Amino acid sequence: MHIEINGASIFFDTVGPKLSPVGGAMVERPSLLVMHGGPGFDHSLMRPYFDRFADTHQVIYIDHRGNGRSGGEAETWTLAQWGDDVHALCEALGVRKPVVYGLSFGGMVAMSYAARHPDGPSKLILASTAANMDLEATYGMMETLGGAEARRIASRFWTDPSAEAATDYMRVCMPLYNPGAALSDEGRSRAIMRTEVMFHFILGEQRLMDLRPGLAGVKCPTLVLAGALDPITPLACSRAILAALPAGVGELVVFDEAGHGVHRDTPEPAEAILRRFLNEEVGS
Predict the structure, then answer these.
(1) When comparing pLDDT for 207 and 54, which is higher?
(2) What is residue 234's DSSP assignment?
(3) What does the DSSP assignment read for 127-152?
(4) d(CA 128, CA 131)
(5) Domains of the chain
(6) SS3 of residue 11 by DSSP
(7) For residue 21, is the peptide bond before it cis, meaning its omega torsion is within 30 degrees of 0?
(8) How far apart are alpha carbons 186 and 76 in whole angstroms?
């Protein structure tokens, strides 16, 4: 489904009803907004794993502006605009106080949304993401996991991205993201890849961004999920997010055997943590 948001056609999809019949009433269920990584990918990489949470929440997927099936001009591919798009989508759909799950780049968008619209989310889940890139830590983890070649290719890709550098990065470095559950050929084949938005963000805002000041204004409970073997948003990045949040707001859970996207490597433990957080009463 498409909806016009802030001058762009934004694709979204839903799994599960918003209203459930309970006795003599229609009871509203909470919304879980799931935001994909990248940039340059689409929401399909989050499927079908997060569909399972439709038993308690209405699950909403979005293709971020410029990604997947969504439109939007290149000059609008910014974290501020992506964050505002989340707010506008919720306003247009009548979604109040969503739980927002952001993976990797989607976590950066979630942080932008929460900073710019602090009364918007009821809860935040920031998974395998960073408020500011720690590229030295990334290069170190790439070398630990893949040797000197992985470090060299990662450094080249993040300092001077090109089609050739991206090919080498996909071949050598991306398999290091997850120790036991690399993205399947089936998953890759159904995903829409838009390298132009990836290069736009990597060459520009991502290398210089610092979302930590905005995190100081986050009001809602925030769960930070990290894999100890994540080379692209290493554990240091998650610790920095936790340190930037107001006291008592954040919780960091580290999965020792997981890489980038803990639900891929440790699906059952990740689901248990997510369900506990999703079903906690705010303020409990």
Answers:
(1) 54
(2) -
(3) ES--SS--HHHHHHHHHHHHHHHHHH
(4) 11
(5) 2-132+178-279 (3.40.50.1820), 134-172 (no CATH)
(6) strand
(7) no
(8) 31
**pLDDT > 90 in the chain, percent:** 85
Distance CA 56, CA 32 (A): 9
Alpha helices in the chain (DSSP H): 79-93, 105-116, 135-159, 163-168, 185-190, 195-203, 205-208, 212-215, 235-244, 262-265, 267-279
Give 247's DSSP letter: T
Question: What is this structure's pTM?
Answer: 0.95
* Sequence-separated (6 or more) residues with CB below 8 Å from residue 115: 83, 211, 213, 214, 215, 217, 218
| CA distances to 152, 155, 247, 256 from 281, in Å | 47, 44, 19, 28
Q: CA neighbours within 13 Å on the CB side: how many for 166? A: 12
How many Cα atoms sit within 13 Å of 242 on the Cβ side?
17
